Amino acid sequence: MAQQTDIFPPPGEAMEPPGAFEAQPMGFYTDTTVCIGCKACEVACKNWNGLSARDGGAQPMSGDSYDNTRTLDGEHWRHVKFIEQFSEDRSQGRWLMMSDVCKHCVQAGCLEVCPTNAIIRTEFDTVVIQADVCNGCRDCIAACPFGVIEVNPVNNTAMKCTLCYDRMQNGLVPACAQACPTASIQFGPIAELRELGAARVEQLNTQSRDAGRPEDAYLYGADDSIVGGLNSFYLLIDEPEVYGLPRAPKLPSSQLPATTALTAAGAAGLGLLGLLGFRKRRMDDFAAEARAEAAESVRLAPGETVVVEPERGAKGGVGGEY
Amino acid sequence: MAECHPVAFRYVMQAKLAGAKIVHADPRFTRTTAMADIHAPLRAGSDIAFLGGIINHVLNSKRWNEEPFFKEYVTAYTNAATLINPEFQDTEELDGVFSGLGPYKEGAWGLNGHVGQYDNKTWQYQGTEIADQGRSAATAQSGEQGVQSGQESEAAEAPPAGGPPYDELVRGLLKPPSQTDPTLEDPNSVFQLVKKHFERYTPEMVEQITGCPADRMRQVAETLLENSGPDKTSAICYAVGWTQHTYGPQMIGTAAMLQLLLGNMGRPGGGIVALRGHATIQGSTDIPTLYHSIHGYMPAPTVLKKHETVSEYLQAETLPKSYWANMPKFFVSYLKSMYGDAATAENDWGYGWHPRISGDHSHMPMAIAKAKDRVRGMFAMGQNPAVGGQNAIYQRKALAKLDWLVVKDNFETETAAFWYKSPEAVSGELPPEDIPTEVFFFPSAQVAEMDGTYTNTQRLVKYHFKAADPPGDARSDLWFTYHLGLRLKELYKDSTDPRDAGIQNLVWDYEPDEEEVAPWAIKDEPSAPKIMREINGYMSGNQEEHLPGFAALKDDGSTTCASWIYSGIFPKPGIENLRAAHRDNTPTTAEYDGQSLQGTELDWGFAWPANRRMLYNRASARPDGTPWSVEKAWVWWDPDKVNEATGDAGMWTGLDVPDFVLGKAPDAQPKEGGIGLDAHSGSDPFIMKADGKGWLFTPTGLVDGPLPTHYEPIESPVPNLLYPNNPTSPVLKRWDVEGNVAAAAEDPAFPYVLTTYRLTEHHLSGVMSRWLPWLAELQPELFVEISPELAAEKGVANTEFVRVITPRGEIQAKALVTSRIQPMAIAGKTIHHVGLPWHWGYQGVVTGPVTNDLSLMVGDPNVSIHEGKAFVCNLEKA
After folding, report:
1. DSSP-derived pairing of the beta strands B438-443 and B404-409
2. Tens digits of per-residue pLDDT, A264-315?
3. What is the 8-class DSSP label of residue A244?
4. Which residues of A touch B783 (CB under 8 A)?
5. Predicted model pTM
6. In this structure, is residue A58 part of a structural domain?
7. Domain, as residue range, for A220
8. Residues of B in contact with A36 (CB under 8 A)
9. A106-134 confidence digits (pLDDT tens)
10. Do the beta carbons of residue B467 and residue B448 sit within 8 Å?
11. Is A54 in CB contact (< 8 Å) with chain B?
12. Which domains does chain B have, with CATH numbers?
């Protein structure tokens, strides 16, 4: 989906509100290689969602590169990470930047554990916490393998990125993606984003191959290997841990006996099946795709999710030792 | 660029995704470097040596000498072939100075500050006398530099022809044409002088001066060469920090030379891209807040030149060749916009009412004038010198000498609060009771609360409509200025003092129509469209008859136009015809050689002049008028296309508005005795220059030399390896007053290079960012960026406090220890950089020390820009 550019109506004319986006899996694809660390996403997010600044903005500096917000939490739903990697003589060096956000997991740990049904899956396959149903029990905080959720200090409920559910319901691109000047954060139907991501991986790895460098670009979370798939997935050029991302995140349900883990029956046993209809459909899609792959067919029915399996080439240097 | 202009950087990123190579030259590894293919680390202030090294490499490279494009472009479109006065002597002969250096004599103003002055007689084209060849630097326009601008004095003694019309006056200024050697082999040709000038700028010398490894510099030069040519172009982008050196304009000039030598001027994807530091800074020089300039880059009338009458002013300031020959039309129409019906041919268009300047009235000398009790009052509108001014301690103390100070800003800035919150006030050094200054604070409306324009760096003017009333008493700058003017006119309406006639006769008719203010609570907001109308111009006596563009201007008073360069922005009445408000992003298309080409969005805003999106775009075609390549086709000569205005076959066409006389054929010759563009041939693209050429060598205009040459900053820890006896610019401006002391060259007490800069998260002195919690939390505290090597040497750990000391002051801030800062090997020494952002002060949501308490008031000789990017300091653990 193209980003909106024409936000100005002609002089004297009111802006027509666009309709809601079509109900289909939507999300973010974040190309970290074009992130310039400007933090416009953090600010646009706070602006749209009315979030407070930590300690009114007057917190001490962290000393951790240019990262002073440090983490995703209840009042920081976008967070830009800065990773400095330099050889001692500076002959080699890079400064990785990555705008982190809730992953809107296809198998969402937070959603699994929420005792009040405050956490829902939307028609866009995103995961949203309803503040007015949240009782502040903090179970979701522990359940999230990415450390995304925290209690917001203003309203004392668990909060995180909604993928701008209110904007999507009105046909508007989420605030962070709208603000991103370099299109590091791209928004759209997951299927399209995966194609974009795969093409970019191929472009980067071709460039690396031509230059005799390691082919280190890959997509993190674009397939179902990470908690069933991330509706906010990333293009990375170093190990996940370098970016503070878990290589193999675990769900709360994975701690249950193996016979019940990650099965429809297990989910039913946890009383979650009704909530997870959408997720189930996605998982069914994955199953269908797996079958299709087995049949060496990449054609899917119209409207079905396209999964592009990234080539996982050799990674670059280990984080911190570049 | 990613740091300070993230939105503009999106286009760089798009280019990168399309395969462009990005080179970043900077002492630090910044967010821009993170996106770059090549990083050239340079010692702050050593840019001319670096660029000079690239020029030297380019001129001796295989590609430049074998690809015929380069020599063809340079010979046809630059002054490379022009012969220079054989008496000219280069810095290479005179140990770092050019021929003509003499002492500077201060006039009555006394604060111009130059330490020397050049007589540029020997820099001139062979066969021509001293004459302006193009627009001059501020200090030459103002008359501070007495001999360099305008006609030589003997010519001025003959009384100028009168007017209108002023054609005879202009024709009387014509000089003989210059002499050329198209083989470029004459030793006095510009090309040979340039080549010789940079001979010593070898990669090894560049490494010694700049700290950039020789191979890295070669790699940059080769990358530029590979990406320049008939089918490729390279752009050089800079942010205004690049100007902030005592030779800043010469640094930009070196980049321009390089771009001319690579054929990257006037062509799509080329050029020098100046990223201005503030919204509509471009607009504020077009319709200026500059002391030396009036609207449309005409020099301000000055008492330092023969400027007693319009004829004298025009004689001194009109260039007989080039489009500037039309100055009489621009100037008379400007005076009509000032004084309306009161301006007549009989009273010299009211010229005598116009203010005149008397010296360098730019920011730093005005601060000294304040300190010396020579200034009574000051308006600081959107300006915060208590934080942003160089040597801010001095500047705050100078504010305390004013009788009154008006601050109009979003918040109570450090400047507004200086009298009780500054470090000097708090420490008791300058207690509030000892400060006589009466301070008035006016809250400002924000951009969405007013009608108005922004002019972007590419001269693109965009109009914005008011969306809401401002809160409380907050008002737009327009409102404030308009009502101030009304009150002044009321105050002086009965005066019989002749000097008040200017205010009495000033045209000030911007009352809003009822429907313009009907939706709003504020009913006395002036009409921005009426101001746009005056800027665009109209037929005198009929404001409804807008001018279609500056070609319609007359020198007989029949046209009224505030700023000729903007004329055409509002060609017909009716807000729908205000082109700056247009938002159609359909790109232009054209066919060339059977291929469909896509160009630029000509109905997206309005770009002055004449809505051209690229200046000097005649150079995008070969001398014969055909594009250099289909890939880089932009504007070309179509011999079959019929010029509707004249009915003749043959005209310039393409994807942009041609920056050329539409019907002038590529093989057209200059007209005998012609003025203006008649003096140019059909292959002279640079229409604002007397010779129509891009200048590699600058005979007039710059007061510190016709060629850029490597000088050290006034404060430097290393010697000048090229010119040990003349390490710094011999004509720079310095003000050696109490409280503004410079460190001596190579002073061991101040061994580190200090450079200041902005962060993405904040804006300038912080008034638009430090008061906003969302931005404040992103960079809450001032920090000092140092390398792990310097930190180890000083025993400082990350986030521990350090003291940074210069001869002006001392501040304490936390260290941010980072490998993004690297020690450099310079002239046998290890040189450390200390990096300081400068966004903090004692007001706002987050506060911190004022970095500019450390900096020095010292100026470049051309435009009085300070040297905030390279000075020296010491650093100790606190």
Report:
1. parallel
2. 444 444 444 444 445 545 545 554 554 454 443 333 343 343 333 333 333 3
3. T
4. 61
5. 0.92
6. yes
7. 26-294
8. 2, 6, 9, 13, 31-32, 34-35, 760
9. 999 999 999 999 999 999 999 999 999 99
10. yes
11. yes
12. 1-40 (no CATH), 41-275 (3.40.228), 323-356+446-610+653-684 (no CATH), 373-439 (no CATH), 733-877 (2.40.40.20)
